[in-house]
Amino acid sequence: MAGVSRSAVSRTFTDGASVSARTREKVEKAAKSLGYKPSLIARSLATNRTKLIGLVANNFQNPAFLDVFDLFTSELQKRGFRPLLVNLSAETSPKKFVELLRQYSVDGVIVATSTLPTSFATSFQAAGIPVIHTFGKYEANANVHVVGIDNVYCGAMAADLFSERGYRKVALLGGPEAATSTQDRAAGFLKAAHDKGLEVAATCFAENYTYQAGRDAMQQVLREDGIEAVFCGDDLICMGAMDAARAAGLSIPEEIGFMGFNDIAMAGWDAYSLTTIRQPIRDIILSSVELVVGMVENPTRSAEIRLFPCTIIERGSLKPV
C-alpha cells in the first residue's frame, strides 16, 4: 500500500534507523489506514532478541517487594524491555527456572532476592543467559554480577548504635536463618557487639519476612529477662516483635528499644516510629537494570560487584542519647 520495500517499512518502525521523511510519511499513512502495528514476536524471530528480562523473586508477603517490583518494571519498560516475573515461592532449585526462562528465550535475568547463594545466579550464567544478582551476597571472588549492600557492615552499624545509646544487654532477631543476608547481618552485628563489650543475650530467627513471623520469634527473646534492645533484620519482622513486646507489657523505648532494616513506608508510621537502616533500593535497582541491559549488548562483560552505602534513619524506637 505504501509502495515501498519491506526494509523501508522495517526502518520506519525501528528507532534510530535511517529513513527519508517522504518514505516515513507513506509508511505511516498506510499503517494508519490498515491499523498496522509491528509484531514484537515476529521481530524477535528476526533479531534473535525477545526484549524479555526474567525477574526472579520471592518474599512476596513483604510490602517492600511492591516497591522493588514497581521500580524494576518501570525502569525496564523505559528502556524498551519487558519483565517476565518468576515467583520462586518455596522452590530453591535453579534447574526448573533456568529451563522455564530458556523456553521464553529471555535476553537476560535479574535474580532479585537476598535469600539465595550466588550459585543460584551462576546457574543461569552457565546456561548462557546474562544474569545479575540483585541484593546478592558480596563475595570477593564472585564471577557473576552482584548489586546490593555490604550486609556485614550494616549489622555492625546496628551494634555500634546500640553501644552509643548506652545499651549493654541486647538481642538479635534475624530473618530466615538460611538467607545469606541474614547470615551476614548477624555476623556483622555479633562481631561488633563483642568488640563494643555488649552482651548478646538472645539470638533467634524468624521463619519468613512477615509481621506474624516477627511476633512469634519475639516470644523467644522475651524468655530472657533484661533485654534492653533488639536488632531485627527486617522492618516488618521488627513491627511484629514490637507488638509482641507491647503485649507483654513493655513500653517502647523506655523499657526496650528496637531497630529494623530496610526503611519501608510503614516504618515511619506513628504506631511504630521505627529507627532503621535504610537500604538504597532505587540506586540498587537502577544499577541492576543498567547492568542487565549492558549485558544484553555485551554478554561477555566482566563481572562487577556494586555495593551501595546504607544509612541509619533515626525515629523513636530507641532511647535518646
From TrEMBL:
Keyword annotations from UniProtKB, A to Z: DNA-binding, Repressor, Transcription, Transcription regulation
Coiled coil: none
The keyword Transcription regulation belongs to this UniProt entry's keyword annotation: yes
CDD domains assigned to the protein according to its UniProt record, in alphabetical order: HTH_LacI (cd01392), PBP1_LacI-like (cd06278)
Any Pfam family: Peripla_BP_3
An example Gene Ontology molecular-function term: DNA binding
Top-rank lineage group of the source organism: Bacteria
Name of the featured protein: LacI family DNA-binding transcriptional regulator
Residues covered by the HTH lacI-type domain: 1-47
